[in-house]
Amino acid sequence: MLPRCAVILLVLLKLGHAQYEHLGYPPGYPDPEQEQYTAPQLAPDTPRIQLRLAGDKRKHNEGRVEVFYNGEWGTVCDDDFTIHAAQVVCRELGYLEAISWSPSSKYGKGEGPIWFDNLHCTGKEKTLALCPSNGIGVSDCKHSEDVGVVCSDKRIPGFKFVNTLPNHVENLDIQVEDVRIRAILSSYRKRIPVTEGYVEVKDGGKWKQICNAEWTQFNSRVICGMFGFPGERKYNARVYKMFARRRKPTYWEYSVNCTGNEAHLSSCKLGQATALKSNETCSGGLPVVVSCVPGRAFAPTPMTGFRKAFRQEQPLVRLRGGAIVGEGRVEVLKNGEWGTICDDNWNLLSATVVCRELGFGTAKEALSGGRLGQGMGPVHMNEVECSGFEKSITECFFNKEAVDCSHEEDAAVRCNVPAMGFQERLRLSGGRNPYEGRVEVLMEKNGSLVWGTVCSEGWGTMEAMVVCRQLGLGFASNAFQETWYWPGEVSADAVVMSGVRCSGTEMSLSHCLHHGHHLSCSKGGGRNAAGVSCSETAPDLVLNPQVVEQTTYMEDRPMFMLQCAYEENCLSSTSSQVPANSYRRLLRFSSQIHNNGQSDFRPKAGRHSWVWHDCHRHYHSMEVFTIYDLFSLNGTKVAEGHKASFCLEDSECDEGIEKRYECANFGEQGITVGCWDTYRHDIDCQWIDITELKPGDYIFQIIINPNYEVPESDYSNNIMKCRCRYDGHRVWMYSCHNGGSLSTETEQTFPGLLNNQVTHR
Question: Which of 126, 301, 646, 760 fits a disulfide with 40 by CB distance 3.0 to 4.6 angstroms?
Answer without folding.
Answer: 126
